[in-house]
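agent: user wants the full assembly modeled, not chains individually. Plan: 1) parse entity lines 2) check alphabet per entity 3) run joint structure prediction 4) return tokens. Steps 1-2 passed, two entities, 451 residues total. Proceeding.
--- entities ---
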Amino acid sequence: MHQGDRTAVAHAQNGDSDAFRSLVEHHSRYLFSVANRLTGSAADAEDVVQEAWLKAHRQLGGFEARADVRTWLHRITVNCAIDFIRARRHREDAHDPADLEQGPLSERGADGQVTPLRLAQSGEIRQRVGEALGRLTGLERAAFTLRHMEGMSIDEVGAALGLKASATKHSIFRAVRKMRQALEPLVDERGTRCS
Amino acid sequence: MTGHPHTRHLTADELVLVYFDEFTDRRGAEAHLALCESCRRDLASLGDTLALVADHQDVAAPEGFERVMWARIQREVEGPTPGGWRHWFALRRLALAAGVASIAIAAFVAGRWTTVPEPAPDSPIVADGTELAPERVLLGAAGEHLDRSQRVLVELLNAEPDGPMTVSERERAADLVAASRLIRQSASDAGETALADVLGDLERVLMELANGTDDDTAAELRQLRQRIESRGILFRMRVVGSDMREREKASGPPVS
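--- prediction returned ---
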């Protein structure tokens, strides 16, 4: 655990707002990434991170000194994002933004080695990944990200999002299908499935 | 849990479950994969795709995000400091008093009191007849002005990339410019520099929108959108607007 974090938390627990501020300045960018992955929107991620910090502040007293601060903040942020997504669900347009009829991306992946060319392509790959994620519904994105990035089991994802296991699986399958369709041309060609 | 190799290939969805280690017949799948090069290739391809997502999914926070985040939560974290606030308000009361009439006019221009026939807009009162404190007029007018302006900018950003601005959109922008100038001047007089700064940037964008013509090219509109995004104008407006609302809330019952 980062020693500065440990000290900052101890001071913040005693009401030192400057210490809490140092935590905010040290971890906010990371938490934004976490929230943005789940919500898919920078504006929503900002709100989620704000709520996460306020919650963390309220829960400072319950923080165990041996725990890792970033892990603790990460968990709070994920929970806030889940709350946000659940609240948003009833508003979410049923329209599926994916256009599965779109043609394959033309860019072919490199050989998997880290080369200058590969690095140069990294920005574009990030853009393609962002576009592919943009084709997911909010629920698909949340279920997929919680499973793939947060390592939650399908049952846990379902419980968090208020979905049955079958609906959770369905959301993840659809998300993966869309991601594969959009991104597989970028990865190494590994042959075709046998019939 | 048979452990017997599947006699058919694994479906795409089954491979997803295998990848996430959630396939019910894990041993059967493993036995099949040991025998089937095709399914192994497909599983590897799935893994590569998902690794690509994991490696490239993160979006960087806007510049200065951590400082802005602190500004958003500072008041709640530090808690109320009544003496400090009284002092702060006392220092600004004179400056605010000078600007209150123009704020009221600005709010009137922006439509804040257009549905209330009495009293006259230069003497805003709350329902019980109490005269509003000048700082509350500024907070209320600025908060609403920022909300209204945000809606215009969001519509602009979400509009058809090559679509022209309509006359009514330009008129809305022109109304907002007039209100914005008055509020910015009062904010500046009251030492509200963050508010004055963001209103300055907002005004320039609104001016361009208001003065636009049907001949404006799609490229010009794209440039304007890019400027809004690159300068983080919407983000700053949200932060300052949120701060205004919080302070208005803290200073008393809502104005209506």
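agent: reporting back. Residues 93-113, 189-195 of chain A have pLDDT under 50 and may be disordered. The first helix of chain A runs from residue 3 to 13.
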